[in-house]
Amino acid sequence: MAGLLCTGPGVAYAGNGENEKLEGDISLSGAFALYPMVVKWAEEFKKLHPDVRIDISGGGAGKGMTDALAKVVDLGMVSRDIHDVEVQNGAFAIAVIKDAVVPTINASNPLMAEIKEKGLSREAAKKLWSGEASTWGEVLGTGSEVPVHVYTRSDACGAAETWSAWFGMRQEDLQGTAVYSDPGVASAVQKDRVAIGYNNIAYAFDQKTRQPYEGMDVMPLDVDGNGKVDEDENFYSSSMRLITAIIKGQYPSPPARNLFLVCNGVPERPVVREFIKFILTEGQQYALGAGYIPLPRPVAQAELEKLNK
Fold first, then answer.
1. What is the CA radius of gyration of the chain?
2. pLDDT at 204
3. How far apart are CA 196 and CA 300, in angstroms?
4. H or E stretch at 102
5. Which label site among 150, 192, 206, 290 has the fewest CB atoms less than 10 Å from its CB?
């Protein structure tokens, strides 16, 4: 894994550089995809700077962007690419980590053997989330009449935008039962034997066991569309195997993507700048343990240099 990443802290975190005690408040809101990672970063940062208070709330990437541009929070958590109009309105984005969206299914699906063998193609995904497919047979190219229940997100979020981009759609066009939040979709899939949804890695895999959460499984992608999951497409048995596949480029991007922290203009408050510096340096070592992919060292260094422009 280390050889694949060629990463680790790009530069050592040196504190605030003034030998003064760092204190103050930092507020963040936004993407559920980034929430667990930011919580971990906040815990580690506060060990170094116990007088810093950090408030973190979810709500989806759309809320994170809106709050950041309105200066309601210091940093918005955004799990999608930044739009040109947002940049024009003052969005200053720093890539901080990478993860991916995966299709999730119930672990008790009666067609699990066929699902693992055939996987999910772009064409089948588009049929599912456009409302054209109503049975698993239509998804798998078989005669099965087992119904399929499709779940999507009700909140403006990077997961939906990134997932739909893989098969040429937009979030606002996605059909299915709309559920709020990443945990909400995961819970719905766990309760419905014939469900299919999509989740970020941190909500599909238990990061203690590295296995899918109880009651859930991940449907493999048939990336080349040949009607089966080839050996080099079969890497979903653990989060570490999936992460390795993302690093190698075997898992497509999208639905793999960078995650961002966004501020209205270049952040000026020292406590906010130091938190970002910590994330891009020492903070990267906590990525794999939380189910994320650290930034390659040159990328982390380039993002760090943005703070000085």
1. 20
2. 96
3. 35
4. strand 91-106
5. 206
What predicted TM-score, i.e. pTM, was given to this entire model?
0.88
Calpha distance 186→105 (Å, rounded) = 9
Which residue type does 59 have? Answer: G
SS3 180: coil
User: Tens digit of pLDDT for each residue in 110-124?
Assistant: 999 999 999 999 999
CB 230 within 8 A of CB 96: no
Q: What is the rounded CA–CA span in Å between residue 90 and residue 99?
A: 25
Which pair of tokens denotes residue 57?
A: 């709330």
The percent helix, strand, coil of the chain (3-state, each to 5) is 40, 20, 40
pLDDT at 19: 47
135 Cβ contact partners less than 8 Å away, ≥ 6 residues apart: 144, 145, 146, 147, 148
Sign of CA dihedral 65, 67, 68, 70: positive
| 2 pLDDT higher than 80 | no
Cα 303 to Cα 93, 95, 145, distances in angstroms: 9, 7, 50
Q: Residue 259: how many CA atoms within 13 Å on its side-chain side?
A: 34
